[in-house]
Amino acid sequence: MAETEKIAAIMFADIMNSSEYANVMSTTSYHNFIIKCLQGICADEAVYFNSAHPEYKPLPEFSTPEQLNQDYTCQFRTVGDEIRVFLYSGDEYADTNNLLEIAVRMKLRWLFSDFNKTRIKQNKAPEDLAIGIHTGPVVIESNKPEGFAMNVGKRIEGECRNGNLCRILLHANSVNFIQAYQKRQGVKCFLAPQFSPVWTFSGKGIAQEIPIRELKFFTFLGQSEVLRFLDVDPKYFIKHLFAASTQAPYPHFIYSTILSALQKLGIDDYTFSYIEDLCTKVYQYLPFDDILDLIIQVYEYRYKNNFKTMGIKEKLDFLQMFYRWTKENDFGYRFMMEDILKEQAKLAGSFKRLQPK
């Protein structure tokens, strides 16, 4: 088969601490507990992606000589304990956006894998999946992508150890492709991402500094789809993620997932306590509007359902919390403020001690 040059969206992923497990586990145990798990995650995501995106032509896992001459546009592979995904449909903007969505789903699948479920039940931190994404030219011969862009993608994945947010790192140009794609008219996206500012690092064998950005926060645009591909019910989904977040050293990915899930599930007696606890923690260092909206919903919910039955001290506590998060001139929730101020007038003397924060 002749060589073909394509612009490909490239993803490398592996377990953060895989070498530590490889050093202490037998070859058979490592294969059964780690590699088989990653192979299953990769295979499940390939099936999901190909059913959701029939416009791509997937490379079969085992290709015959005749199949080598066909023009495929996506590949999902595991090589040892590493996952590799390549998309090269001819639209690098769509490919890169789709690859980020694949990366997020891969991390979720890994978080809900039997391996991490066991760790979380043992009150251990879930192991993280390092993911690097790059978009660039590759040469494809016998369905094997090769080229400098592959090297850059691998170096970006290796830099994930220095990430401190969602630990999905992208070349700065890849982020540009995603942002441009999401501005197209009529496109349907799985998630809405936000990214860190650009920073650079030196990659082995690469002369120039590599500019990268880290996935900082995201919200799902279709929560039911997440629950469907994970095959879990909403309550288990929330409980498992909360248990994981208490142990994880870098819980931003988990926080994004939880908050996005809670947004879609809505405020009720079940989600209320989770949201209140989590939002007040997360907003301190991720002051995004999505989180603020959830916070306001929490206090609106508490007011509508509980405020009239509270005692004076409980009402004061509530008002204090509400003022902490809602400033009359900032967030446009004046319709709530009117009701709050009426209650404030009733509390008269007691409320004089309370000042807005």
Key phrases:
357 residues; alpha+beta; Alpha-Beta Plaits; 9-stranded mixed beta sheet; 9 strands; disordered C terminus
Brief overview, please?
Helices cover 51% and strands 18% of the residues. The protein contains 13 helices and 9 strands.
Any overview of this molecule?
Helix 2 crosses helix 3 and helix 11 runs antiparallel to helix 12. The C terminus is likely disordered. Strand 2 and strand 3 form a beta hairpin. It contains 13 helices and nine strands. It is α+β, with helices and mostly antiparallel strands and 357 residues long. Strands 1, 2, 3, 4, 5, 6, 7, 8 and 9 form a nine-stranded mixed β-sheet that branches. The longest helix has 26 residues. The chain is elongated and about 80 Å long. It folds into two domains: 249 residues, 2-Layer Sandwich (Alpha-Beta Plaits); 92 residues, no CATH class.
List the helices and strands and how they pair.
Elements: E1 4-15, H1 18-24, H2 27-52, E2 74-79, E3 82-87, H3 92-111, H4 114-121, E4 129-141, E5 144-146, H5 148-158, E6 168-171, H6 172-182, E7 191-195, E8 199-201, E9 210-220, H7 223-230, H8 234-247, H9 252-265, H10 269-282, H11 289-306, H12 312-325, H13 334-351
Parallel strand pairs: 4-6
Antiparallel strand pairs: 1-3, 1-4, 2-3, 4-5, 6-9, 7-9, 8-9
Helix pairs in contact: 2-3, 3-6, 8-9, 9-10, 10-11, 11-12
